[in-house]
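Me: Here is a favour to ask of a fellow structure person. Could you put it straight underneath, so I can go through it closely?

Assistant:
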Amino acid sequence: MDITRWFPNEVIEQIVQAAPPADRASLCRVSKLIHDLSLTILNRTVELYEYNSAGAFCLALIENPSRGDAIRSFSVPSAIPRERRLKRDNWHWDNWSTLEYLVTEAMKLMPRLENLVMHYLQSEPMECTFPRLATFDIALSGTGMPRWQRLVPFLRRHPNLTRLRIKADEDITVAKGTSISLLRLKHFDGPTTLIRSLVVRCLREARLDWCSHFHRRQ
Protein backbone atom coordinates (compact mmCIF):
# COMPACT_ATOMS: atom_id res chain seq x y z
CA MET A 1 0.00 0.00 0.00
CA ASP A 2 1.28 3.44 -0.93
CA ILE A 3 1.07 5.43 2.32
CA THR A 4 1.63 8.68 0.43
CA ARG A 5 -1.98 8.43 -0.76
CA TRP A 6 -3.37 8.34 2.76
CA PHE A 7 -1.06 10.52 4.85
CA PRO A 8 -0.16 14.18 4.39
CA ASN A 9 3.50 15.10 3.96
CA GLU A 10 3.68 16.39 7.54
CA VAL A 11 2.81 12.95 8.92
CA ILE A 12 5.30 11.22 6.62
CA GLU A 13 7.98 13.66 7.76
CA GLN A 14 7.28 12.72 11.38
CA ILE A 15 7.60 9.02 10.51
CA VAL A 16 10.92 9.60 8.74
CA GLN A 17 12.22 11.78 11.56
CA ALA A 18 11.37 9.12 14.15
CA ALA A 19 13.24 6.43 12.20
CA PRO A 20 16.89 5.58 13.09
CA PRO A 21 19.46 7.31 10.85
CA ALA A 22 20.34 4.08 9.02
CA ASP A 23 16.67 3.48 8.18
CA ARG A 24 16.30 7.02 6.85
CA ALA A 25 18.83 6.23 4.15
CA SER A 26 16.74 3.18 3.17
CA LEU A 27 13.56 5.25 3.11
CA CYS A 28 15.16 7.45 0.45
CA ARG A 29 14.75 4.52 -1.97
CA VAL A 30 11.03 3.88 -1.35
CA SER A 31 9.55 6.54 -3.64
CA LYS A 32 10.38 9.95 -5.05
CA LEU A 33 8.16 11.75 -2.52
CA ILE A 34 9.61 9.91 0.47
CA HIS A 35 13.08 10.34 -1.03
CA ASP A 36 12.62 14.11 -1.13
CA LEU A 37 11.19 14.25 2.40
CA SER A 38 13.89 11.96 3.79
CA LEU A 39 16.65 13.92 2.10
CA THR A 40 15.35 17.12 3.66
CA ILE A 41 15.55 15.60 7.14
CA LEU A 42 18.94 13.98 6.52
CA ASN A 43 20.34 17.34 5.43
CA ARG A 44 19.22 19.30 8.49
CA THR A 45 22.47 18.51 10.28
CA VAL A 46 25.49 18.08 8.02
CA GLU A 47 28.81 17.06 9.57
CA LEU A 48 31.68 16.46 7.17
CA TYR A 49 34.95 15.23 8.62
CA GLU A 50 36.66 13.84 5.50
CA TYR A 51 37.76 16.08 2.67
CA ASN A 52 36.62 13.94 -0.26
CA SER A 53 33.09 13.66 1.14
CA ALA A 54 33.07 17.41 1.85
CA GLY A 55 33.85 18.20 -1.77
CA ALA A 56 31.31 15.71 -3.12
CA PHE A 57 28.54 17.03 -0.84
CA CYS A 58 29.18 20.68 -1.69
CA LEU A 59 29.27 19.94 -5.41
CA ALA A 60 25.94 18.08 -5.20
CA LEU A 61 24.42 20.99 -3.28
CA ILE A 62 25.60 23.51 -5.86
CA GLU A 63 23.99 21.37 -8.57
CA ASN A 64 20.73 21.15 -6.54
CA PRO A 65 20.46 24.52 -4.73
CA SER A 66 16.99 23.87 -3.27
CA ARG A 67 18.49 21.29 -0.90
CA GLY A 68 20.23 24.08 0.97
CA ASP A 69 16.93 25.27 2.46
CA ALA A 70 16.85 22.20 4.73
CA ILE A 71 20.30 22.69 6.29
CA ARG A 72 20.24 24.07 9.83
CA SER A 73 23.68 22.96 11.04
CA PHE A 74 26.81 22.74 8.88
CA SER A 75 30.23 21.51 10.02
CA VAL A 76 33.24 21.20 7.72
CA PRO A 77 36.40 19.12 8.34
CA SER A 78 37.95 19.73 11.73
CA ALA A 79 39.83 16.63 12.92
CA ILE A 80 42.27 15.80 10.11
CA PRO A 81 45.83 15.17 11.39
CA ARG A 82 48.39 17.77 10.30
CA GLU A 83 50.50 15.25 8.36
CA ARG A 84 47.49 14.38 6.21
CA ARG A 85 46.68 18.02 5.58
CA LEU A 86 50.26 18.58 4.42
CA LYS A 87 49.75 15.85 1.81
CA ARG A 88 46.47 17.32 0.67
CA ASP A 89 47.46 17.40 -3.03
CA ASN A 90 47.22 13.60 -3.03
CA TRP A 91 43.53 13.67 -2.15
CA HIS A 92 40.76 13.27 -4.70
CA TRP A 93 40.26 17.05 -4.56
CA ASP A 94 43.84 17.63 -5.67
CA ASN A 95 43.39 21.37 -5.91
CA TRP A 96 42.94 22.62 -2.35
CA SER A 97 41.59 25.97 -3.48
CA THR A 98 38.88 24.15 -5.44
CA LEU A 99 37.58 22.49 -2.29
CA GLU A 100 37.59 25.78 -0.41
CA TYR A 101 35.72 27.43 -3.30
CA LEU A 102 33.08 24.66 -3.26
CA VAL A 103 32.55 25.06 0.49
CA THR A 104 32.17 28.84 0.15
CA GLU A 105 29.68 28.54 -2.72
CA ALA A 106 27.70 25.84 -0.88
CA MET A 107 27.37 28.01 2.22
CA LYS A 108 25.75 30.73 0.12
CA LEU A 109 22.88 28.28 -0.53
CA MET A 110 21.98 27.81 3.16
CA PRO A 111 19.55 30.68 3.99
CA ARG A 112 18.18 28.94 7.10
CA LEU A 113 21.50 28.01 8.65
CA GLU A 114 21.50 28.28 12.45
CA ASN A 115 24.82 26.64 13.45
CA LEU A 116 28.12 26.91 11.58
CA VAL A 117 31.40 25.20 12.47
CA MET A 118 34.37 26.12 10.26
CA HIS A 119 37.74 24.60 11.18
CA TYR A 120 41.04 25.05 9.38
CA LEU A 121 39.76 25.78 5.90
CA GLN A 122 40.41 29.08 4.16
CA SER A 123 36.82 29.12 2.88
CA GLU A 124 35.17 32.44 3.50
CA PRO A 125 32.02 32.31 5.62
CA MET A 126 32.62 36.04 6.05
CA GLU A 127 31.29 36.54 2.51
CA CYS A 128 27.93 35.07 3.52
CA THR A 129 24.92 36.26 5.51
CA PHE A 130 22.78 33.82 7.50
CA PRO A 131 19.70 35.58 8.96
CA ARG A 132 19.06 32.79 11.51
CA LEU A 133 22.64 32.12 12.58
CA ALA A 134 22.84 31.52 16.35
CA THR A 135 26.13 29.63 16.78
CA PHE A 136 29.41 30.43 15.04
CA ASP A 137 32.53 28.34 15.75
CA ILE A 138 35.60 29.11 13.66
CA ALA A 139 39.22 28.00 13.98
CA LEU A 140 41.75 29.58 11.68
CA SER A 141 45.37 28.83 10.90
CA GLY A 142 47.71 31.57 9.71
CA THR A 143 44.86 34.05 9.50
CA GLY A 144 46.59 37.38 8.89
CA MET A 145 45.06 40.81 9.33
CA PRO A 146 42.91 40.96 6.17
CA ARG A 147 40.73 38.01 7.21
CA TRP A 148 40.14 39.49 10.65
CA GLN A 149 39.02 42.70 9.03
CA ARG A 150 36.30 40.72 7.24
CA LEU A 151 35.30 39.02 10.47
CA VAL A 152 34.13 42.26 12.08
CA PRO A 153 31.48 43.09 9.41
CA PHE A 154 30.42 39.42 9.44
CA LEU A 155 29.68 39.62 13.17
CA ARG A 156 27.83 42.89 12.70
CA ARG A 157 25.58 41.24 10.10
CA HIS A 158 24.69 38.51 12.61
CA PRO A 159 23.41 40.32 15.72
CA ASN A 160 21.35 37.30 16.83
CA LEU A 161 24.37 35.15 17.69
CA THR A 162 24.05 33.44 21.07
CA ARG A 163 27.30 31.43 20.96
CA LEU A 164 30.62 32.59 19.50
CA ARG A 165 33.89 30.65 19.50
CA ILE A 166 37.01 31.88 17.72
CA LYS A 167 40.41 30.17 17.77
CA ALA A 168 43.44 31.28 15.77
CA ASP A 169 47.18 30.74 15.47
CA GLU A 170 47.69 34.50 15.28
CA ASP A 171 46.35 37.47 17.19
CA ILE A 172 43.21 39.23 16.14
CA THR A 173 43.77 42.98 15.92
CA VAL A 174 40.65 45.09 16.21
CA ALA A 175 40.85 48.82 15.50
CA LYS A 176 40.44 51.07 18.51
CA GLY A 177 36.86 52.26 18.87
CA THR A 178 35.37 49.28 17.01
CA SER A 179 31.92 48.33 18.31
CA ILE A 180 30.10 45.07 17.53
CA SER A 181 26.58 44.74 18.92
CA LEU A 182 25.70 41.16 19.92
CA LEU A 183 22.98 41.79 22.46
CA ARG A 184 21.81 38.14 22.52
CA LEU A 185 25.27 36.64 22.99
CA LYS A 186 25.34 34.25 25.97
CA HIS A 187 28.58 32.31 25.49
CA PHE A 188 31.92 33.63 24.22
CA ASP A 189 35.17 31.69 23.74
CA GLY A 190 37.96 33.64 22.07
CA PRO A 191 40.69 36.27 22.21
CA THR A 192 40.65 39.08 24.73
CA THR A 193 41.37 41.56 21.94
CA LEU A 194 37.91 40.90 20.48
CA ILE A 195 35.66 40.75 23.52
CA ARG A 196 36.44 44.32 24.50
CA SER A 197 34.80 45.44 21.23
CA LEU A 198 31.59 43.48 21.84
CA VAL A 199 28.42 45.14 23.09
CA VAL A 200 26.53 42.43 24.99
CA ARG A 201 23.55 42.27 27.31
CA CYS A 202 22.96 38.58 28.13
CA LEU A 203 26.50 37.22 28.43
CA ARG A 204 26.61 34.28 30.87
CA GLU A 205 29.97 32.68 30.15
CA ALA A 206 33.26 33.97 28.72
CA ARG A 207 36.41 31.94 28.11
CA LEU A 208 39.26 34.24 27.16
CA ASP A 209 42.45 33.41 25.28
CA TRP A 210 45.30 35.27 27.02
CA CYS A 211 48.16 33.09 25.73
CA SER A 212 49.44 35.36 22.97
CA HIS A 213 49.56 38.35 25.34
CA PHE A 214 51.43 36.29 27.92
CA HIS A 215 54.09 35.20 25.41
CA ARG A 216 54.67 38.75 24.17
CA ARG A 217 55.53 39.84 27.71
CA GLN A 218 58.15 37.14 28.21
Remarks:
- Residues 45-217 form one domain.
- Strands lie at 45-47, 73-75, 115-119, 135-140, 163-168, 180-181, 187-191, 198-199, 205-209.
